[in-house]
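Name: DUF4190 domain-containing protein
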Amino acid sequence: MNITPTRTLAVSSVATALAPLAASAAAGAFDDVIGTVSSGLNTIIIFLFLVATVIFLFGVVRYISAAGDEEKTKEARQMIIWGIIFLAVMVAVWGFVNIVLDFIFGSETPFVIPGAGNVPSQP
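Structure predicted for DUF4190 domain-containing protein:
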């Protein structure tokens, strides 16, 4: 195996980033670690849903502004399709992970939509 400085830097960076998590897990704070990781992943999920929605909407805008040009219409259609596929995969993976977690931990709680607590509701 060829060890390069880049690979060494990458491994040491990951180890340095995960060291506090390992230390707190060793101290008996496993629930805190899981909560921190879950919170971080929920933030990433929200960001990825946002990116997929922007890709889809940008494709729609490009499709409308193509004005009959076949090449631009084709590119915009591909962007719309990829945005829909990305959204569908995100929803499917999110649902699958929640089903597996409910099966493993038996928590029988309703699905929690990441970031839904920040949405204002009507009285």
